[in-house]
Amino acid sequence: TLRTLVFVAWVLGYVAFLLSARRMWTGKYVRSPLVRSLFVNMVSESQAAATETQEWYRCSPDLLGESVQPLFIQSHLDSGTKAFLKRSVEKSSWMFTQLYHSLVSTVLSPMVSRTSINGFLGRGSMFVFSEEQFQQLLQIGTEWRAERLLDLGAGDGGVTEVMGAHFREVYATEVSLPMKWHLQRRNYKVLDIDEWQQTGFQYDVISCLNLLDRCDDPLHLLRDIKRSLVPNTGRLILAAVLPFQPYVEIGGQWQRPTEHLKIKGKTWEEQVTNLSNEVFRRVGFEVEAVTRLPYLCEGDMYNDYYVLDDAVFVLKASDMNGTLPPI
């Protein structure tokens, strides 16, 4: 009986603590100016929201290297991004769901990776680009179609879905078992992380989104990608969080990768230039287009969403002179 009382008291105390930390379950108390405006569907009328989101896409082209400047594409907050943010705000306000997620995460985190916990709970979806931004990067229309897409480290498949409508076959890799289940439910062909290079066919587009800084041997990965692209017309879409801080998750703990990829520069523009002129060229890629986008993740009890700075590149093999295949 005493143990039961202690357990109940602990649960009640835990819930009270989380509620006090959250303090804002309705639109009236939403923290961010952007989120407040999204909540009442007034993004275009909110100066504070405009200021906040402008920082997500801000780039000073003059600070980019001469070879990179003409390749930069200016992106903006669009309807697809707004829709993701609005869903994230709504989900973060589901009090009892967030309490359950927090409790399960606390119990499982010593034994299970954060990615697998999110996959099990069906939370933590990521957003890299909208359909419109994807089409702008590849310079394609809505009707453009190609044969095969491979999304490396696809997570729950949310970003894969944005790209997948343009391909007849969609392949994906993922380490986390719960995330694999999500991908299979979307009818994507899930390949083992050591299998995709040995399928006997090549891919029209390979996406490597925010994986380079979580990979134990990033240069080896880039070389494998180059060999797996369709000659002449194949493209790699690569997103990297900047500033670049590589770590790999092993057994629930973060460690330095075996192959440390050092990116020079302090600003977003300097690191983009270094990646373009040094890292990508070293493995035989050249930049075709680059943009700055927010790397968004669904929120929780403490934040309506999470955001990091992304550089998103379209790369082609340096010996390629072809263009994307016609519709």
From TrEMBL:
It comes from the Eukaryota. CDD domains: AdoMet_MTases. InterPro entries: METL9 (IPR007884), SAM-dependent_MTases_sf (IPR029063). Gene3D superfamilies: Vaccinia Virus protein VP39. Transmembrane segments: none annotated. GO terms for molecular function: protein-L-histidine N-pros-methyltransferase activity. PANTHER family: DREV PROTEIN, PROTEIN-L-HISTIDINE N-PROS-METHYLTRANSFERASE. This is Methyltransferase 9, His-X-His N1-histidine.
